[in-house]
Known about the structure:
The protein contains 14 helices and 18 strands.
Amino acid sequence: MADRGEELYRQRLSKLDRLRAQGIDPYPPRFHRTHTVEEALALFTRTEASGRTSRRRVTVAGRVVGLRGMGKASFADIRDGTGKIQLYIRSGDLPPDQAAVLRELDTGDTLGARGTLFKTRTGEITVRAESLTLLAKSLRPLPEKWHGLTNIETRFRQRYLDLLSNEGVRRIFTARSKMISSMRRFMDSRGFVEVETPMLLPIAAGAMARPFVTHHQALDRDLYMRIATELHLKRLIVGGMDKVYEIGRIFRNEGIDTKHNPEFTTMESYEAYADYNDVMAMVEEMMAFIAQEVMETRVASYGKHAIDFTPPWPRVTVRDAIRDKSGIDIGDPRYSDIEALRADIAGTGLKVAGLSPAQLFDKLLSNFVEPTIIQPTFLIDHPVEMSPLAKRKVDDPRYVERFEGFAGGMEIANAFTELNDPVDQRLRFEEQERFRLEYGDEEVDRLDEDYLLAMEYGMPPTGGLGLGIDRLVMLLTNQQSIREVILFPQLRSIEKLPPAE
């Protein structure tokens, strides 16, 4: 038996041929509408409210999402990016040369219509069509379950069908756009300058992550997709740009799960003459500002939780958080012997063989602490082994002036009082290189000589920040998977696309 989808495809190809044979271009180069659907509906509502009875003529366009035939009259629902409106179509009202458009019309086609607005007996605002223009013939049928495409593979691989079928998905990405615009307004209002830095780099430094590698043919050299924007943004601080930020894509060759995608979006900012306390205050204010602008409330529903972004957020040291949740005090002098720390962590049931000190501390955080933090909270003062780019605490150099912001059981922000001592920075980078050799750890920071050269010219005290935009969108739109908030997430490869439902 022939595949149902392929049979419909062939039928629509035949319709395409018949339209062209009658001189109708099924893909015209342009069409001028006078109103969006939203504007047309608002126009009728205003006219009705004013008591005027004259019918207003509009030209609208959109995708046909419903067709209903009733003898000599037909109804079609069309949807554009602003909403849906009904068309009332009588073949006798159309010019003779447009009869073929109506005969060959299918759901999924993009249609332009000119006519007058009126309200049906059932109270639905409708356009009585006086002319129809086929704008794009759809050769494949829309998903049968128009009111909700549910196949996960289809939703993410063919996101256009997901957007067509699920209004909630469109709302997510509209909210994402508003959130980024709100973030820009906040940063701009504080005097930050938005900049752009390279995506292809000779050294993948600035974060503890595995990079993607590519090869530049003309230069005959390997380059790396950036894993952070940090080091180039701090070069700008050296250059006298006191407040800078960048919103852009980051690429990390890591696993894929509900909180991670190999490419994701961050906002990184750097402010001269600020420290991590100043940055914490800025993050609190920013998140409350964005939530209020996007959701009109500072409290977001996330799963079964109501997450309140209202400042101030609690500050908890990493040492206290790990001790309270796991029973291990990482500040215990016994743990100057890494094997003693490894043994005690193994006693909690975690696998620790061959892990570096930074990996051991991260293991404790990710397993015992991170999943328990639901309300916005700052974890502050990390072990120096975890933070090669952060400034040591004056009163206890085993730790650095760093915070991570958590909410909904996941990290959303990472920030430092930036290390600006080029001698100490070189020593930290060299230690990271030793960790790579000793533990085979590819997720360590890398020594960048050009960055060190910039530091040797002198960088003022600086507060730096990295924010994960995708996870913020997850929190504000109540999505449990990062794939729901990235339009085109990375997926496993397949030989053939799954059929639409």
